[in-house]
């Protein structure tokens, strides 16, 4: 038997295969397909303080080996989550991490304080990298001062595991990672989507209502992998890696590059049972390669 | 091997294509068989189909269920060639595997035993209407089906459904049935109030036109909406439709909506 | 008949379909497949002052809808070009633009001065965005001061058309574009490749000798298109667009986003005759859409 | 329509697959026909093949030419299943289109009329060796072919070539011909100096082993190299091999190199 357990700060994951925020709903939707206890954890859909309708239709466009989305953080607000969703999912035997989003630092703080009360949510993923909202979102995540400020203020009110989710739309992502590490982040997760665009040549119009949107899927994998590797070499805190993971080999590559835990995002749209398959294949790989613990894969790129 | 403990409400599985036959120039009937027993699948629900071996097609494509055979474990769908994915799908050969996510979405509200209903289908929207006609449990006298298309050639042959319903046709060029859009057809224009329920599936424009008249006439009316989907099971929030309850997902809160919910 | 002619500063292109630097050799190689006079122009392989051996093998890895390369500007140096290659290609009836690269500003200046003497090279593409060299290259292109400095110094010694090629590996590409515009660039071209990485999960080694490399191909198209659109809206000088163009629709999308001329790069590896096909399809599109001149497509995105 | 004025040295065209037959468990012979007259194609040259309908395969794959029939306008190649692209290629059916870029690379230097030659092929490296044996114009007595493989099953049947050359086999398990690597085979170990020219194609390790001995024995020796290629026609500079003249492209300066040029 191989040992799949891995820790990110205080958070114990039964295995390193988790689901990315915005692509696994509030975990319930995935429970229609598989037992949530199988996977390492769920990074729940991005929540905001108040209800958000999100952007107008159309919100997505298919691209070569990927897709653009312009959802814009549609959600019913944190109170709705606490009252209506949390009770239903809180006893899932897996890690539930909430993805929090604000337009202002005050939003982030208020949200975090509410989330702090939830027993079964042992960590937050601070999203300072959403490219699909007009205010806040990525604006914080693309500069060191912005990223530092949000991290510092949230850190003051939160003492469970704080994971800061980084934007790839920057010149030097390891600089931002170091900045949030300096402000007390317990881990970083990367990457969020790349700002992209699609046009319909026939109608000469943008394909998304918002003109630009976030690119995800295998298309971005080479860039995401490079960033995980750079960041893992730049910080001491654990790295949660994602971006285009479609199979166990991809997941292993991210771990070799330095990710302790990986998130499966867009791939579940193609196959919602994929995370389960990846766990099985990861076990097979470890048996075949005589790797005892997943910890022996993390950052073990041979160069 | 980790055991896959199914929570058993929705599934992903490889089906085997048992039949793929052209219904006319652009529509194909594809029937696929599962190895496992099928769950209940209702009219209005859909499946999300992976397109095999197609360069540059990344996501699945949604198609309404047209027919379910619980003895044979088959699901059928009518696929109209629209773009690259549907084109590729219609080229699949019997014997090939095809991966489906199923069953997805909400079905039409079943009519009551005494209801008189009008089913309106446009384009590939015929599929769920025929499915509903068959499954409704109503007597043929209670069910009118109105099908709209551009020309006679665009209509697919549904004569076998005349045992479940009275068939009416509208074509834009008058080559079959009455000339004009479905909303100009006599069963729609003259007799709307004799129906307890109207169900419709077809292009957006048609749905809106029907909804407008049905709303004015205050008749119960459900429409099935098409929409760009990434996941099909409610996690991506790409497939929204603005409603009285805010933006709802067409894939889980729909594709069937009561017109009174919609902001049309 | 439709009018395909388009101008970028003083450079007249008989049509907007050109070939990207590093993917069309020195044009001769393409002449094995089609008459070079058919296309708008060739952006010749990146040249340096002295001979460069480039990086070690392996230099490429296939990725979903794209590829990584780590060529590292292998070339025999500008003198070899002038003596041995230029004479052979100088009478091609099309625009020949040379792509110049330096490790230092002095390199760029020396190179430009030599190129200035070549009658039939009416423009240079200043590459400040190569991700595959240890010194110079992208280092200049990812900061405004760096980009400004090189542009300013080269501008002093060059009065033909100066096109500056931008790196996409930045937080705000329109800022860099404005910076080089301010220093006298006549046009900008974008995007160069994205810094990416590939790992072989089985061997646990990087797939490239240099660990990281440049990502190109359709995978990057949505991001490249967004950047072209942002830059076209930020500067007054013409924009040369590229990144994953595989067919006429892609080329048209870049023009709608604001590119005056487009470059076909990686796509020619799949089909070296593609540029010719794209010109034909562009004509068809224009006839079908009753577009008289390509100039009526440039920046004509309907929003 | 703009006229496509061919500069006529290299081509991109759709061929029709006329035959695809398994030679053993992992090797297939694929023959494809062109609509146009073929240019001269020589042993050692290769074609770059587009893999149809394969998700996640972006670039073409290079394969050596095994046979050319100028009457039928066909090119044949031997494809060994290595990874995803070659696997997919071996599944192509007769009648399908396949796009080739051709002819690519430099050929082997033809032997002089009086030369005695040894051709050594390993794995899919047999293809150009058999092509060369046939095209060399030499008498059978002048040509020895030595083929290496892991086991008898890995060898493909090349008996028909015994009219052009004397066939010798080496297998690692001794199940066909002599046991061991080609470089341990008696024709190689004992008789190297009786050959005027040695030609080899196969895995990198085999090429290096042969080159080492040939160099020591000071015999003329050309080897064909495999390498990761992006373009195949000399523009990407990905396929380099360090040589006395610097980094050369395997696709245009090779794939055939004289061992004295190489930095081995
Ligand atoms: C719930 C549901 C049920 C459906 N049932 C059926 C059915 O039974 N039979 C059938 O033939 N089709 C059905 N469709 C439509 C079908 O999903 C699309 O025709 C198909 O996805 C098109 O894929 P493609 O690759 O051929 O087109 P693409 O090449 O992806 O697109 C071609 C063009 O059509 C547009 N388009 C594609 N899909 C949609 C869409 N869903 N809504 C609006 N515009 C779109 C694209 O934006 C593009 O402009 C259904 C759709 C939904 C959402
Ligand atoms: C000039 C030339 C002539 C060739 N002639 C033949 C031939 O006649 N018959 C034949 O069967 N094969 C031939 N090959 C090899 C053939 O091109 C590869 O087997 C094929 O490209 C593999 O593609 P794939 O998608 O199956 O493998 P992939 O899935 O792409 O790769 C599988 C593994 O093999 C490695 N690999 C792939 N291609 C090469 C390569 N060219 N060199 C080294 N490692 C590689 C990859 O890095 C990977 O680890 C030739 C190659 C060259 C360069
Ligand atoms: C439809 C969609 C919605 C998303 N919503 C969120 C979100 O709410 N919060 C967040 O941090 N990331 C969000 N993401 C980004 C993903 O979590 C992930 O970072 C990104 O998609 C890259 O991973 P992938 O390529 O595996 O999908 C979303 C992505 C998609 C495709
Ligand atoms: C193999 C290879 C070599 C390249 N060499 C150069 C170069 O020498 N100079 C340069 O400015 N860009 C170079 N590029 C970048 C391309 O010109 C182009 O900017 C990039 O590939 C994006 O376009 P594409 O996706 O159409 O290929 C190279 C790209 C590739 C794939
Ligand atoms: S398609 Fe993803 S939520 Fe409906
Ligand atoms: S494969 Fe491109 S130069 Fe050889």
Automatic annotation (TrEMBL), chains A, C:
InterPro entries documented for this protein:
Aldolase_TIM, DHO_dehydrogenase, DHOD_1B, Dihydroorotate_DH_1, Dihydroorotate_DH_1_2, Dihydroorotate_DH_cat, Dihydroorotate_DH_CS, Dihydroorotate_DH_I
| Cited Pfam families | DHO_dh
CDD domains from the xrefs? DHOD_1B_like
Cofactor descriptive note: Binds 1 FMN per subunit.
Q: Which domain of life is it from?
A: Bacteria
Sorted alphabetically, which PROSITE patterns does this protein's record hold? DHODEHASE_1, DHODEHASE_2
Write down the top EC class of this protein.
oxidoreductase
Report what the protein is called: Dihydroorotate dehydrogenase
Q: Which organism is it from?
A: Maribellus luteus
Which gene produces this protein? pyrD
């Amino acid at each position: 038997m191989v040992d799949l357990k891995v820790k990110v700060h205080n958070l114990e994951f039964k295995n390193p295969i988790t689901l990315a925020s915005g692509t696994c709903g509030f975990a319930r939707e995935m429970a229609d397909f598989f037992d949530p206890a199988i996977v390492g954890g769920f990074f729940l859909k991005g929540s905001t303080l108040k209800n958000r309708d999100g952007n107008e239709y159309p919100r997505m466009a298919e691209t070569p080996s990927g897709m653009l989305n312009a959802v814009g953080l549609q959600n019913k607000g944190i109170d709705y989550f606490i009252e209506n969703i949390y009770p239903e999912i809180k006893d899932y035997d897996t890690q539930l991490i909430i993805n929090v989003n604000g337009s202002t630092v005050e939003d982030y703080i208020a949200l975090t304080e509410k989330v702090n009360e939830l027993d079964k949510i042992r960590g937050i993923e601070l999203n300072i990298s959403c490219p699909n909202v007009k205010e806040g979102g990525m604006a914080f995540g693309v500069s060191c001062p912005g990223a530092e400020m949000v991290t510092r203020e949230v850190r003051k009110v939160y003492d469970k595991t704080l994971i800061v989710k980084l934007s790839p739309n920057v010149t030097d992502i390891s600089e931002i990672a170091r900045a949030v590490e300096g402000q007390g982040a317990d881990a970083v997760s990367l990457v969020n989507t790349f700002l992209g665009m699609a046009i319909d040549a026939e109608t000469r119009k943008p394909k998304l209502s918002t003109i630009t949107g976030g690119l995800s899927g295998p298309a971005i994998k080479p860039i995401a992998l490079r960033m995980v590797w750079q960041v893992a070499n730049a910080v001491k805190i654990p790295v949660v890696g994602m971006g285009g993971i479609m199979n166990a080999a991809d997941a292993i590559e991210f771990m070799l590059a330095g990710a302790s835990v990986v998130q499966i995002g867009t791939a579940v749209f193609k196959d919602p049972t994929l995370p389960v398959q990846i766990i099985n294949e990861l076990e097979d790989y470890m048996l075949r390669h005589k790797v005892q613990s997943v910890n022996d894969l993390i950052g073990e790129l041979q160069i | 091997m980790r055991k896959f403990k199914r929570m058993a409400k929705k599934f992903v599985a490889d089906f085997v294509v048992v039949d793929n036959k052209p219904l006319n120039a652009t529509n194909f009937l594809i029937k696929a068989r599962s190895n496992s027993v099928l769950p209940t699948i209702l009219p209005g629900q859909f499946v999300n189909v992976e397109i095999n071996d197609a360069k540059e097609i990344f996501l699945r494509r949604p198609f309404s269920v047209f027919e379910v055979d619980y003895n044979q474990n088959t699901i059928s769908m009518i696929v109209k060639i629209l773009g690259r994915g549907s084109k590729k799908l219609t080229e699949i050969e019997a014997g090939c595997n095809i991966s489906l996510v199923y069953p997805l979405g909400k079905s039409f509200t079943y009519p009551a035993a005494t209801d008189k209903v009008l089913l309106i289908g446009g384009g590939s929207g015929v599929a769920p209407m025929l499915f509903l006609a068959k499954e409704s449990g109503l007597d043929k006298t209670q069910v009118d089906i109105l099908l709209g298309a551009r020309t006679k050639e665009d209509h697919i042959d549904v004569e076998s459904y005349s045992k479940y319903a009275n068939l009416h046709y509208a074509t834009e060029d008058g080559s079959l049935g009455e000339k004009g859009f479905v909303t100009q057809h006599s069963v729609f224009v003259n007799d709307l109030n004799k129906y307890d329920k109207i169900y419709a599936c077809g292009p957006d424009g048609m749905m809106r036109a029907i909804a407008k008249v049905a709303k004015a006439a205050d008749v119960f009316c459900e429409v099935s909406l098409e929409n760009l989907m990434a996941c099909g099971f409610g996690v991506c929030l790409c497939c929204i439709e603005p409603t009285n309850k805010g933006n709802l997902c067409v894939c889980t809160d729909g594709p069937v909506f009561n017109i009174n919910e919609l902001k049309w």
